[in-house]
Structures are given as structure tokens and as C-alpha cells.
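Changelog note: in this version the structure field was regenerated for every chain. One regenerated record is shown below for reference.
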Amino acid sequence: MEKLYKIDGDIDDKELNELVIEGYYDYFEISNSLIKKCDFSKSNLQGVDIENTTIISSNFSNVDLSSRSYKKVTFKECNLVGVDFNTSFLESVVFDNCNLTYSNFTGCNLKEVKFINSKLDSASFNEVKWKRLEFDDCVMDSSEFFHTKLKDIDVSNCRVKDLRCTLDGLRGLVVNYEQALELSLLLGIKIK
């Protein structure tokens, strides 16, 4: 992989391929671009807004993406382990076949966000506001949803174990029979 040490200004209508991005970036925008096989894991991107961009097979593990805006972005087959989206705004964002283990979405505003065939073990969705949030065929072991309303969210085709949430937030969550048995433990129900 080639190294790109400094991004000078906005990235608009470009293709970035097989680059290593390092360093701290105060503010720049990525728009109308394609990013493939890039490694951002040694960078701090807290100042980046991304719009109308597809990101494929790229590494964002443990990267700070907090307090920013992401609109019409697709992450496909990306490593997002430990990524921090804390208090960000995500609109029309798709995570397709991504590893989001230990990711943080606390305080986010999620509008039309889809998680497809992705791993969300120990992910934090605390205090999230959402509109049209979808989980399709995801693994969600020990995921947290404290102070997040789950009404009408369908996780029936996901693997959900040890869901962490308040009983009030759980009301209206759509689950399958096996999930319902496990969630009944949160109520203190004993099944013989």
C-alpha cells in the first residue's frame, strides 16, 4: 500500500485506492467519492464529514468519527471495530457486511440507517434517536440500547444474545420465538 500522510483540503469526486492515511485532521469533507482498500486506522478523523461516498474493504478500526455528519454513505466489507460515531448524524447510511464490534453510536441521530449482515457485538446504541433504523441478518451479542426506544425495530432474523437495555426501551421490539425466550430473562421470568 502507498502512504498518504496528509490530506490537503476536501476530497471531491475522487477515487482513493490502497492508501494508508495517517495523522490528525481538523476538518475536511469527502464527497461523491469511492474509497477502496484504504487504511485509516492510524488517523484521527474527528473533523471529517462524508457525503455521497462508497467505502469498500477499508479499515477504520478504533478511529474517532464522532460529532460529524454522514449522508448517503455506504460502508461495504469494512473493518469498523471500535469506531466511535458518538453524537454524529447519520442519514441514508448503509453498513453492509461490516465488523462493527465495540462500535459506539451513543447519542447519535440515525435516519434511514441500515445494518446488513454485519457484526455488532458489544456495540453501544445508548441514547440514540432514530427514524427508519434496520437490522438485517446481524450478529448483536451483548449490544447496548440503554435509553433508546426499540419500538418497531425488527431483529427477528438477527442473532441477539444478552441484549442490554431498559425494560421500558424494550417495549415494541420485534423478535422471533427463541429471542423472546431469552429476553424473558430480563423480566425475571423462570421457564420450566
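Spot check on this record: The CA atoms of residues 154 and 174 lie 4 Å apart. Residues 2-187 form a domain with the Pectate Lyase C-like fold (CATH 2.160.20.80).
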